[in-house]
Hints:
431 residues, disordered N terminus
Amino acid sequence: MLTSLDTAKGLSDFGKDPVWLVIVKAVLIFLILVLLTLFNIWWERRVVARMQHRIGPNVNGPFGLLQSLADGVKLALKEDLIPKAADKVVFLLAPVLAVIPAFLTFSVIPFGPTVNMFGERTPLQLTDMPVAVLFVMAIASIGIYGIVLGGWSSGSTYSLLGGLRSSAQMISYEVSMGLALVAVFLYAGSMSTSEIVAAQDKLWYGLILAPSFVIYVISMIGETNRAPFDLPEAEGELVGGFHTEYSSLKFALFFLAEYINMATVSALATTLFLGGWHAPFWIDEFWAGANSGYWPVLWFMGKVLAFIFFFIWLRGSLPRLRYDQFMHFGWKRLIPISLVWIIAVASIRTINLNGGFDRSYLFAAIGVLAALSIVLFFFDEKKASDAAEAEEAAVFDAFAGGYPVPPMPGVEVPTRKVSTTSSTDADGGAS
């Protein structure tokens, strides 16, 4: 575990760059994120098209690579509409409030080691701080205000419901995401992103802290409103969700924020669990220069793109969850499992730091607790399934309350007898 002296030594590399180099780094990060967004949109359309036996964009530019740029120009030239019932100031500021935090979070992400850039020795990272990971989570939480205010200021019921869903989703899954990172802090002894990467030079935390890694990956999908957790944008229920009333460049900013947030959570997962910019598959064991110079940027971007492919794969494979299923999974599954795992990791670290004891008993106890949790997990699911089957088996009265409603699939609908006897009026004629 890193000591406070080691952390201070690592952080001392930052804050020494001249102003012009800081500006150059900031501009490079901005360009990388914009170009990465254009590429990710094209990549998502191509991958999903292949999964559905289609071709995808292939006209504008080689392999259709300029299609995203053409779509951006089209959005910029579209008519910019503001609903009559909207709060105009908040309506205009909401997309900006969503996209700026998305860029800021990359300021503490390490792209590589210290290199020679334009004659200056500097780390491939804009800045770092002792609580860099908490900074990322705090700034990412600010971005949700743009979505909530955008839905509220539109003056539309659908937009408001989409914004409320997004805020509830962020609160639910950011809790489990934060809990998943506690184990990393316990092992690294630091919340600095550069120090966490340095602590994984031999073994990645994604391997030794696999439950935290899995919980983080699930939480980051819910945090970014991506399928199958894209409930705030459910077109079958909310038209388009929080951005229903947006058009032109303001809609493009929401789109940009979503894809940059995908890159942010992917970069954070790479930094905390996959060794950051360190070479994969232990390439550095037989190539001494794999983790020096600008080569680590290639390893880092490759890992980030692998996560983004995972996002795309899920979108093309899984259907959207119901909202109650989504919230139930976050509060009653991910958070309790995260708490139990934190207790286990803290126990192991405490024992190791105090000299340790026979670990076989500890691992046996953890195995028993894990098996018990899995049994209770499926037992609870079985009870819920039995209750749902019993409810479906009940006879459904479509006219209860005086209003006919459609039945659920598989529910028996009773037939209603209709009298065909004709009444006779006073003159003896049928009425």
